[in-house]
Structure prediction request, 118 residues.
Amino acid sequence: MKRKKWSIALSTTILSALVIMGISSPRSAVSAENKPSLGAEIKIDNFNFGPDLTIAAGTTVTWTNQDDVPHVVASDTNMFKSKALDTDDRFSYTFTKPGTYVYYCTVHPKMTAKVVVQ
Prediction:
């Protein structure tokens, strides 16, 4: 009986520590099928945006400038616009409605790409 009480106390202590540290129990873990969207990444490199994306509505897209020069990410319909992104700076935008969204760099207007939201 003592061993069972000790085991329960230890389990409760460990579970409490995990909750305090922000780690959930396996039963509360999200299954792969129900996993929320983590977002999508677009790299700005060599004066190009890449890749063009097709995403679900509600997805957040993050652009990361990997060039040695600043770039500005801007929608051609003024829906979103970043500040000037220096090397390793990021800009994120959440697409909530289906459609095709063309964007470009305001500093280098020939840099264009698109995000298709379904």
Observations:
- Confidence is low (pLDDT under 50) at residues 4-36.
